[in-house]
Amino acid sequence: MPQSSILNPATSELAQHVAAGLRKTPKTLSSMYFYDDAGSRLFQQIMALPEYYPTRAEAAIFQQHGRALAAALSPAGSPDFSLVELGAGDGAKTKLLLRELLQGNAAFTYAPVDISAGAMTGLVDTLRRELPALRVAPVVEDYATALTQLRTWPGTKAVLFLGSNIGNFGPAERLNFLRQLAAPLGPADRLLIGFDLQKDPRRIRAAYDDAQGVTAAFNLNLLTRLNRELGADFDLAHWQHYTDYSPLSGAVRSFLVSTRAQQVHIAALEETVDFAAWEVIHTENSFKFTLPQIEALAAEAGLRVVTFFTDAAGDFADVVLAAREG
To answer: Where is each Histidine-specific methyltransferase SAM-dependent domain found (predicted)?
Structure first.
């Protein structure tokens, strides 16, 4: 019996993605698979790096504008609502908002969504210690599944998609994702989405290629995951991380680079993949935006900008959106 036929559903999905991605030109793997437990821990380290400004910029917005954000997300006249966060991670920034809502006596349930069970367990344990009055309903799912569930989610909701994760989608995927978010929204529902804004290109590039090599380890961990879960034999000594940024397109692109001609066997696929010297696997996009671009994107997706908040330096924007009227 082929090994791929006895894989569990999650691993089978990963195997299918890898099989399709490594047949493309250029070869491609999705950044959604960065976030196994080890990847989630590495990303927590990335967020604390001196080069990685987005986390600090968004935290500054929550600290400076927390009360106004809470008011913008709380549905008028609704006795209770759900605060659903896609890709919750460690919830560090979100806790600032949760405290504002609790202090304002808002009646709500926090529903963090994350693909990593380890990250979710840590978040829930922390919330129970730090915010014992908070009602928490954790969901361990990927974005696609969570979006499907949103369509049947009862009552009024505010959906958070923070940390510039929207920038990881290419233009067509981004529009489709926002349309999926917009579809289940009622008139009182709200979205809060974090957008990294365009700025000094050198600062942007440095944020994705730090001096300590943590981002490189994060990218390379994807190969470690394939070795563990799919029985691949990537030799990490012959791979390196590379990233670039284009001010014209606003795109940071990250790659894994094969430093020599090599073959990689993937047992779960019963395939051997050839890599030329210096051939790349494209693993991530991270797009940066202007405020006019955000408004145009929202309109195209069937959304309207209710209000937006930026940090003092104008590095980042948290944008409150609602379904377009009419």
So the answer is: 15-321
